[in-house]
Write a structure and sequence with these properties.
heterodimer, A: two-stranded antiparallel ribbon, 11 helices, 74% helix, B: mainly alpha, two-stranded antiparallel ribbon, 13 helices, 1% strand, Branched-chain amino acid ABC transporter permease (chain A), transport (chain A), cell membrane (chain A), ABC_transp_permease (chain A)
Chain lengths: 307, 323
C-alpha cells in the first residue's frame, strides 16, 4: 500500500461524498420544508443524466448537456410537484412512499421506452480530460477533481442561498412554521414548487456529472438514492449541514472501507477467504456505521430542533 | 355477516376453486399463477401485521422474504450434495425442516434489525429498515459461496412427507393451507390482548404508555412475528421458482410487498390476498400486452394512492371499522 494509492482512494471517497451531498441536499431540503419523503429523487438524477447524454450527443457539447440536465431535471421536478407531490403533503408517510414508488416505476419504464435498455455513454469534455500528478507519484483524473470542486461550489452556493437571501429566509421560515409563513402573505404553494425544482435540479446535475464517469442507464439512480437515505439518516433528516457531513462520512467510509478492509482481513485469514470476507464486509460497512450512529443518536448527528 | 366477511369468503373460495378448475382442464400454468398469488399474499400478510396493525412502515421486508428464500436454497443445495453446512450440520430437502429454519433465522435477524430500527419512528424507521435490507442484499451479492449475484438454483423442488410436490396442484394446496392458517393466526392476533395493545400503540402511543404498556416490546414482538411469516413465504417462493437470487432481497421487492398490502387494503384480514391477486393479474394481463407493463402499473398505483383510499377491499367491502 503506497501513499499515492491511499491518497487516490481518499479523493475518490471525497468525490463520492460530494456527489452524495448534491443528491442528499435536495432530499433533506424537501423533507425539511415540505415534510415529504421522496423516493423518486433517484429518478430525477437519472433524468439529468439522460438529458445530458442526449443533448451532448446531439450538439456535441458536454456543457450544453450539463445545462440541459439542470433544466430538464428542474422542469421534471416542477411538473411532478404540480401534478402529484402537491396532493401528498397532507398524507402520511406511507402514502408518500407508495406514490413516489409509483413515480419511480413510471420514470424508469418511461425512460426505457424512450431510450431503450442499452446504456448511453457520455464523453468527458476535452477541457477536463487528462490527469494531474499527485504528490507521491500517482496520477488523478482532472475530471474527478472538477466534480469535487463543483460539489464544493454548490455547497457554498446553498449555504449562501439558504442563509443570506430572501428565498432562503422563506425556506427556513417554511421549515419552522408553514402555517405562519402562509399567514404572513408568502405564497407557500409556489415556494414548495421552487424548493422541489431546486432539489431536482441538484439531483439532475449530479446525475449528469456522474454519468460521464459511468454509463447512463435506467435504474442508475436507485443505488445512489439508498446511499442518500443513509446519508440523511446519519446527518439528521432536514439538516443541510448534516447532509454535508453525512455525505462525506459515507463517501469516505465506503471507498476507504473497500480499499482497506480486505487488506486488514488478509492479515488474519488466508487470501482466498480474505477476498470473500473483505468484499462482503466492506459492502456492508456504511450500514454498520449508520446502525452505530443511530444506536447512539437515534435522530442523527444534527437533528433539527423542531419536527 | 358483514359485507367484508362475505367478500373474504368469496376470495378464499375463488383462490381455491380457480386452480382446481384449471387443473381439471389441464392448464397447469394457471395453477402456478394461483400458487404465486397465495405465496405473495402470505408474504404481504406478514407485512400487514407490522404495517396494518402496528403502523410500522417497514421498507425492508424483502430482507426477510429473501432470508426465507436463501434458507430454502442453501439447505436444499447441501441436502442435495450431502456436504455439511457448518460444524457438520447437514442440509435437508424436507420442507417442514426448511420452514422451521427459515422462520428461526428470520426471527433472529428481525430481532436485531427491529431492536435498532424501533428506537426511531416515522420517516427514520422507513429509511432504516430500507438500509438494513440493502445491507443484507449487498451481503448476498458479494458473498460468492451461494451464487452471489447470479443466485442459486434449487434443482428439484423440496419434499413434503406424503405428497409429490412436483405436481403443481399439490404444491398449491400446501401454500394455500399455510396461507389460511396464517390468516387465522392474523385474526387471532388482531383480536387478542396483544393485538389490541399493538393497534392502540399505532393510534396513540402516549396513551398506551400512560396506562403502563411499553410500546417498544409490543412493536418488536409484532415486527419479529411479521418477519417470520414473510420468511416462510420466501421459502415457499424459492421452491415455487426453484431459484433464489438477490432480487428477492432487493428494495423493489420491499416496495412490491407494501404495494400488495395497500392495493388490498391496509390492516384488513384478506387485504393481502386481494392485493396479491390483483397484482399478479395485472402482471399477467399487462405483461402480455406490453413489455413496459410496469409503466401502466405505476400509473394505476399512483391513481390508487391519490384517489382510492382503503384499497380494493375498501371499494368492495366498505370502509374499515377501525381507524
Amino acid at each position: 500500500m503506497t501513499f499515492a494509492l491511499a491518497l487516490e482512494q481518499l479523493l475518490n471517497g471525497l468525490q463520492l461524498g460530494v456527489m452524495l451531498f448534491l443528491m442528499a441536499a435536495g432530499l433533506t431540503l424537501i423533507f425539511g420544508v415540505m415534510g415529504l419523503i421522496n423516493l423518486a429523487h433517484g429518478s430525477l438524477y437519472m433524468v439529468g443524466a439522460f438529458a445530458c447524454a442526449a443533448v451532448a450527443a446531439w450538439t456535441g457539447s458536454f456543457w450544453l448537456g450539463l445545462a440541459a440536465s439542470l433544466a430538464c431535471a428542474a422542469a421534471a421536478g416542477a411538473v411532478v410537484e404540480l401534478v402529484v407531490i402537491r396532493r401528498l403533503y397532507d398524507r402520511d408517510h406511507l402514502d408518500q412512499v407508495l406514490a413516489t414508488f409509483a413515480l419511480i416505476l413510471i420514470f424508469s419504464e418511461g425512460t426505457r421506452w424512450l431510450f431503450g435498455s442499452f446504456p448511453l455513454y457520455l464523453d468527458i469534455p476535452p477541457l477536463l480530460q487528462g490527469a494531474v500528478q499527485l504528490p507521491g507519484g500517482g496520477e488523478y483524473p482532472i475530471y474527478r477533481l472538477a466534480i469535487i470542486a463543483i460539489g464544493a461550489l454548490v455547497a457554498v452556493g446553498l449555504y449562501v442561498l439558504i442563509g443570506r437571501t430572501r428565498l432562503g429566509m422563506r425556506i427556513r421560515a417554511g421549515e419552522s412554521d408553514r402555517e405562519m409563513i402562509g399567514a404572513l402573505g408568502v405564497d407557500i404553494r409556489t415556494l414548495y414548487t421552487v424548493v422541489f425544482a431546486l432539489g431536482s435540479a441538484l439531483a439532475g446535475l449530479s446525475g449528469a456529472l456522474v454519468g460521464a464517469t459511468q454509463s447512463v442507464q435506467v435504474g442508475m439512480g436507485e443505488p445512489i438514492l439508498i446511499l442518500c437515505f443513509v446519508v440523511i439518516v446519519i446527518g439528521g433528516i432536514g439538516s443541510i449541514k448534516g447532509a454535508l457531513l453525512g455525505a462525506l462520512l459515507v463517501g469516505i467510509c465506503d471507498t476507504m472501507g473497500r480499499f482497506l478492509l480486505p487488506q486488514l482481513i488478509a492479515l488474519l485469514l488466508p487470501p482466498a477467504q480474505a477476498g470473500m470476507v473483505g468484499g462482503a464486509v466492506s459492502s456492508m460497512l456504511i450500514y454498520v456505521v449508520m446502525a452505530l450512529v443511530l444506536a447512539v443518536k437515534p435522530r442523527g448527528l444534527f437533528p433539527p430542533a423542531h419536527v | 355477516m358483514t359485507r367484508e366477511n362475505l367478500v373474504n369468503i368469496l376470495l378464499a373460495v375463488a383462490l381455491l376453486a380457480a386452480p382446481l378448475a384449471a387443473n381439471a382442464l389441464g392448464q397447469a400454468f394457471y395453477v402456478t399463477l394461483a400458487t404465486r398469488i397465495a405465496i405473495l399474499a402470505l408474504a404481504a400478510l406478514g407485512l400487514n401485521l407490522a404495517l396494518g396493525l402496528g403502523g410500522l412502515v417497514s421498507f425492508g421486508h424483502a430482507a426477510f422474504f429473501g432470508i426465507g428464500g436463501y434458507a430454502a436454497g442453501i439447505l436444499a443445495a447441501h441436502g442435495f450434495s450431502g456436504e455439511p453446512i457448518l460444524f457438520g450440520l447437514p442440509g435437508t430437502v424436507q420442507m417442514p425442516v426448511i420452514w422451521l429454519v427459515a422462520v428461526f433465522t428470520a426471527a433472529v435477524v428481525a430481532l436485531l434489525i427491529g431492536a435498532i430500527s424501533l428506537r426511531t419512528s416515522g420517516v427514520y424507521f422507513i429509511m432504516i429498515t430500507l438500509a438494513f435490507a440493502q445491507m443484507v442484499y449487498y451481503f448476498a451479492v458479494s458473498w460468492p459461496a451461494y451464487g452471489g449475484e447470479d443466485g442459486l438454483s434449487v434443482l428439484v423442488r423440496n419434499q413434503f412427507p406424503g405428497l409429490n410436490t412436483m405436481v403443481p396442484l399439490n404444491f398449491f394446496l400446501i401454500c394455500y393451507v399455510i396461507l389460511l392458517v396464517a390468516i387465522a393466526l392474523f385474526a387471532l392476533i388482531r383480536a387478542s390482548r396483544f393485538g389490541a395493545a399493538l393497534q392502540a400503540a399505532r393510534q396513540n402511543e402516549i396513551r398506551v404508555a400512560t396506562i403502563g404498556i411499553g410500546p417498544f416490546r409490543i412493536r418488536l414482538t409484532a415486527f419479529v412475528l411479521s418477519a417470520t411469516i414473510t420468511a416462510l413465504a420466501g421459502a415457499l417462493y424459492a421452491d415455487l421458482n426453484r431459484f433464489v437470487s438477490p432480487s428477492m432481497l432487493s428494495w423493489h421487492m420491499s416496495g412490491e410487498l407494501i404495494v400488495l398490502v395497500i392495493l388490498g387494503g391496509v390492516g384488513r384480514l384478506f387485504g393481502p390476498v386481494a392485493g396479491a391477486a390483483l397484482y399478479v393479474a395485472f402482471e399477467f394481463a399487462l405483461g402480455s400486452l406490453t413489455e413496459y407493463w410496469q409503466f401502466v402499473l405505476g400509473l394505476i398505483l399512483l391513481g390508487t394512492v391519490l384517489f382510492v383510499r382503503g384499497g380494493l377491499l375498501g371499494l368492495f367491502a366498505g370502509k374499515a371499522r377501525h381507524g
